Amino acid sequence: MDQIPLSATVDGVSAVCIRDGAFLLVERGREPSKGWLAFPGGRREEDETPQDAAIRELYEETGIVATGVSYLTTVTFDYSTPEFPSPKPFRLAVFLAHDPTGEAVAADDAAAVHWLRVDEMAAFDVTESVLEVAYDLASSFES
To answer: Where is the Nudix hydrolase domain (predicted)?
Structure first.
């Protein structure tokens, strides 16, 4: 597993929440990528650790509470990323949520929430980075 990113190098975060082999995805309610499905997440607030930001964003967008998170990877978006174009590199740290509790509801800037298995994601507009993380994690369930 990669080393936890330094706060100064992370612009945003996302939290991967898994229940019964299904991943919690939110439909983005605002640009960029309005209408696309992604893991709950958003920008890190000033003086907030990436881990705290992931837990906060998960709760704000879905009402799900996590006891902690583990770092998975960092994804960089830029002008060449079709689903999330950014004029300058945007670094998104991805975390796995621990012991998620609560019923998921769309809140904050999430238009809807979906619990989807990897094989169900193809029917939706799902970002490439989400699919990669989900495939990697799903293959670890099967091992």
So the answer is: 8-138
pTM: 0.86
Q: Which of 96, 84, 100, 103 is nearest to 30 (CA)?
A: 84
d(CA 95, CA 50): 9
Condensed to tens digits (0 to 9), the pLDDT of residues 85-104 reads 667 777 899 999 999 999 99
Q: Give the closest residue to 61 by CA, choosing from 11, 98, 21, 114.
A: 114
Single-letter amino acid code for the residue at 47: D
Q: What CATH number is given to the structural domain containing 55?
A: 3.90.79.10
CA dihedral 92, 76, 10, 79 (to 10 degrees): -100
Residue 64 lies in a domain: yes
Q: Is residue 2 assigned to a domain?
A: no
Helix (H), strand (E) at residue 55: helix 50-62
124: three-class secondary structure by DSSP: coil
Per the structure, the count of domains in the chain is: 1
Q: Which domain holds residue 21?
A: 7-142
